[in-house]
Specification:
Blueprint lengths: L12 E2 H8 L3 H10 L6 E2 L5 E3 L1 H16 L4 H41 L5
Antiparallel strand pairs: 1-3, 2-3
Helix pairs in contact: 3-4
Length: 118
């Protein structure tokens, strides 16, 4: 899953918006929040979660480890504990490469749709 950072990001995102970004259930986000201390959405008096960009970046990192790399929650937690900075850099590189691949594929499709001149 390729996730682009928004050009004009909002200050806060609802849990439903974040769940939609990652195609996961809201309950998954609430569970990850309990399992990983790097996700710390602000909560209103009524308990409504408000995610800042740094929380979304943390969710992206956990999503990468658990959903894309297939790690267990315990494995992902240990990897973040052992070497968080390297793990973050690796996820950023993978995401950038996916964006480049997506762009190259769209260019290929554009070239393929051009009919050759005779």
């Amino acid at each position: 899953m390729v996730l682009k950072k928004e050009n004009n990001p909002k200050l806060y995102y609802s849990i439903s918006e974040v769940a939609q970004m990652f195609d996961v259930n809201e309950s998954t986000l609430r569970f990850w929040e309990k399992e990983f201390n790097i996700i710390r959405p602000r909560k209103t008096e009524r308990g409504v979660r408000l995610y800042k960009q740094e929380d979304i970046d943390a969710v992206r990192l956990i999503y990468h480890l658990v959903k894309e790399r297939g790690m267990t929650l315990a494995g992902a937690r240990q990897k973040l504990k052992d070497n968080k900075e390297t793990t973050i850099r690796q996820e950023e590189i993978v995401n950038r490469l996916k964006l480049i691949k997506e762009e190259l594929l769209s260019m290929k499709d554009a070239f393929d749709s051009i009919e050759p001149e005779e």
